[in-house]
Each structure stands twice: as C-alpha cells, then as structure tokens.
Amino acid sequence: MKPVIALVGRPNVGKSTLFNQLTRSRDALVADLPGLTRDRQYGTGRVGGYGYMVVDTGGLSGESDTLDTLMAQQTRQAIREADLVMFLVDGRAGLCGADEMIAQELRGFNKPIVLVVNKTDGVDPQAVTAEFHRLGLGEPRTIAAAHGRGIQGLMASVRPLLPETVDEEEEGERWPGIRIAFVGRPNAGKSTLINRILGEERMVATDIPGTTRDSVFVPFERDGQVYTLIDTAGVRRRSRVKETVEKFSVVKTIQAIDAAHVVIFLLDAREGIAEQDAHLLGMVMDAGRALVVAINKWDGLTPDQRDRVKTDLLLKLPFLDFAERRFISALHGTGVGDLFGAVQRAHESAFRDMGTSVLTRLLESAVVAHQPPLVRGRRIKLRYAHQGGRNPPVIVIHGNQTDALPGAYKRYLTNHFREHLQLVGTPIRLEFKSGENPYEGKRNTLTPRQIHKRKRMMKHIKKKGR
C-alpha cells in the first residue's frame, strides 16, 4: 500500500498549487482566492522517485460558520487517514495566530509533521524561516510551489518519515493468486456479489448504502486457480457525505485498486450510469488496472430498460471499449460464473510478455498503413518498439520528433497494438522517446579548399550584384 501525505494549512498558502506539482496534474483548482478548495482531493504523487498518495484539503481557518466548519471536518478526516502531514505556511505573510492554532491542533493527532514554508522565491530563506522556528515543529523546508522550486528536495527529505511501500513480491506472499478488487458506488451490490461467489454470507450486505466501511481481503480458490477478493467501500458524491456518518474511506478504495491485478467495476442497471461512476472508472484507468465491467441487477428489467442501459454504456463510457462487459444478478447468481473467464483473460493480457521483434514489426505495419504526419515539413519517424512494463502493458516507441505526435495518431497506434496482440480488458500505455541529434549545436569545420571555394563564390555574387 502507498503511504498517504496530507497537505494542511490555513487558506491560500499554496496547498493546491503544491498538490498539482506533486501529482503533475491540474486536478486541484488554483486561484488567488482564500477557501477555494472545500473537499478533500486525492492524487498519486509523481515527484520523488517513490510511490505515495497526496490529499489536498480545504484548510483550517478557525471560523465558526457552517461552511468553514465542514471544511475543517474534511481536513481533520484527511489528517486521520494520513501517514504524514505537510503543514504549509506563507513565507511572505509571515507567522500569524492561525498558524500557531493549527500547529497546536496538529500535535494532538500524533502524526509526523513537516513544516513547509511556501512562497520563498526571491527572498532570503534563512530570514523568512527564522520566525517559524517558534512553532517547535523542527527545521522548516522552503519551497516555491508556483515555480516548482525546492519540491524535489522536499520529497527526498520526507522519504525516511514515510512507511515502506509494500512491493509486488511481499503483496503476493500475503495475498496470493489473482487479486480482484470490487469497486463501485454504494449499494451497487459489491458485498452481495462476493457472498454469491463464496457461497456464504461472508460480507455484511444490506440495502443501506455504505454498509461496508473498509477494504476486506478474502482468499478464494476456483477450478484450481487461487484468487484474493477485495471488497471495497462504496464512494459517494461528496455533496452527500457528512463526516459524522461517513461510511467510506476514499484512501482505502484507492489503495485497494492499487493492490489489485484486476478490477471488477459494478454498475447498478436500475440506477443507470452516473457521473460518480465515470469518476471512479477514471481512478481505475489512472492506476492502469485490468478491468471487467459488471452490470448488476439485470434481472427484472424490461427489454426497453436493457436497451437504454446498453445505449448509455456506449454513449457515456466510450473510453472502456477495451473492457469486457457482463450482465449479472449478484442476488440470484445469473451470469456470475462468466466473470472469472473475463478476469483471467484480462489478467493474462495485463501480464503478457511481448518481444521486441514482434512489437517492432507491428509498429512498422502500422506506419506503412498510416504514415505519421509532417511537422515543420519533416515526417515524424518511428523506428522501433519494445516492452517497458506490465500491468498495464507499457510499449516504448523510439523515433524522431515523437513529442509532436498528435493524440489521434497515438490512439491509432494503441488500437493497432491491441487488435494484433489480442489484448482484452487492460489499458495500454505508450511511451515515446526521441533520439538526440549528435550534430545539434555543432558547426561543420571547413577545410582550406572549402574556404577558398567559398571566398570565390562570394566574390562572384558581389560582382553580379553590381
């Protein structure tokens, strides 16, 4: 499991800016307006060379109105879930009473705390950090999140404070076989489906949304194949979440997705496809996990209702064309046995070894069938391909000017590889690398004969110009 880092501080100190820098995304809204972030925002850290999760929070303002109170509750929940807290302060504004109040509250959570002084570009770091030593939280780290300065050093310094990430071998020893995570909105039937597969009431399953509160790992064997089934908490829309009755942990669900080999995503056929379904599927896609889509509660629907669900799948989830879809009833067992064939095909595709010669021949056939476009009058050249990883399959393509390759052509290559390699149920990631020009920046040294011919040519041009 990846460790979790929570970004905490008063409003407008740069938490969302740092979140975007650490995740290399623009998922968090950023503006010069205090209190813009209100909910917890989760992302995967991509700076520092190791795995972790980042949680952006709305901050602690100390105000007593309803909105600020709810924001503070969201922030405290993020602190409880975190393995480490980054306490951000504003280096230009200096130490204030709100910072001292937050520092005092953070001590009560008994979590490792790193004091980060933001907005220190163009000023003396020692002068800026001097007054923050009064907080008694150790040596302050200085960064400029807006410009990305000091962030690599910050992440290197906090690495020893984080728990060790469990690698694939240790995870395999603890939870053997193919790990399957069951993900979906509350009351989609995840626990009921696991009970149906196991043939016993292993999970508490009710009609009350949010019955499951944590991720539960259950070993299971079927037809000689070992599996580990992971039941996850349903993730509701944030507008429906009240901290006092919160029934799920987003962190646990994300960690379960990360630990799984294959995700079975459950959709409620009677409720239809909601925006939250697309959001959760986006989390699965970001993790690169193999995927099987199970449309539950299929029994009892009229032909018109079934046609409507199938149309919605095509219109609302077009990016899932690679995933197998199974129409099931977890309560009655209809179609449940077909899920394991789809899981095994997705797992085999996600972990397949692909030879360099095979991938290069496929790349050549794709280029012959449809040439890459011209860039500044020069054709983009794609030379060879090799495998760069598994789960998901990563194909590394080498060539020239690959940075200018348009998205439409990348999708064409993805579909070409998927079709010819017969990969089912797993996303494919393409990485492009451009070779360096050995003559870039170098001038050709002329021989004496070439210099003489050049002078004669220049004389001839001058005479002609007269």
UniProtKB/TrEMBL annotation:
Residues 3-166, 178-351 form the EngA-type G domain. GO terms for biological process: ribosome biogenesis. It holds the Pfam family KH_dom-like. The keyword Nucleotide-binding applies. GTP 2 binds at residues 184-191, 231-235, 296-299. GTP 1 binds at residues 9-16, 56-60, 118-121. Keywords: GTP-binding, Nucleotide-binding, Repeat, Ribosome biogenesis. Coiled coil: none annotated. It comes from the Bacteria. InterPro entries: G_ENGA (IPR031166), GTP-bd (IPR006073), GTPase_Der (IPR016484), KH_dom-like (IPR032859), KH_dom-like_a/b (IPR015946), P-loop_NTPase (IPR027417), Small_GTP-bd (IPR005225). The keyword ATP-binding does not apply. One of its GO terms (molecular function) is GTP binding. NCBIfam families: GTPase_EngA (TIGR03594), small_GTP (TIGR00231). GTPase that plays an essential role in the late steps of ribosome biogenesis. PANTHER family: GTPASE DER. Associates with the 50S ribosomal subunit. Belongs to the TRAFAC class TrmE-Era-EngA-EngB-Septin-like GTPase superfamily. EngA (Der) GTPase family. This is GTPase Der.
